[in-house]
Specification:
- This protein has 163 residues and is mostly beta strands.
- The chain folds into two domains: 6-57, no CATH class; 63-158, Immunoglobulin-like.
- It contains no helices and eleven strands.
- Residues 18-25 have low confidence and may be disordered.
Length: 163
Amino acid sequence: MLGLTIDISQAEIGGDDDGEEGEDDQPPAPIQLIAGQFVEVKLASNVAPLVATEVEVKNSGTGIEVEIVDQNGNEIDDDDDDVEVVATVTATPPAGVKTKGGKKTLTFCAHSNGGVRLSGLPAGKAKLVVTRFHGSGKSSAKSSALIQAQTTTHVVTRLKQAK
């Protein structure tokens, strides 16, 4: 953060609660933070060594909304949290920001009963793997999307016939 070393090992870490996040949204683990993401840090004191008591990952307005439909195009929306969405995002660094070691890949996972919204993601290319476990078997789908900064990208993912 701005070239400062801050110990966050004992900090409480949370996501931005601006009302935009759904209950399935999870803040990224600190190791997944990348250049260009915003965080609010509360320090134990302003004297070195700097130690954080709280870290809040700010919602950048960048995210992805995944609508999941069955093989017939009907929206999946039942009472069971039987859908898992894994989004792997290869982040595009902001203009003018140099990164060490090449591209940064982040993985986000959410469970739901149908659609999922992941907020606070970095801009970049996203690969989605959707799996639904239900009484008649397992259905799955793969898709991809380009996540633009400061927008929510909408993706419709069609599950293949249960096996």
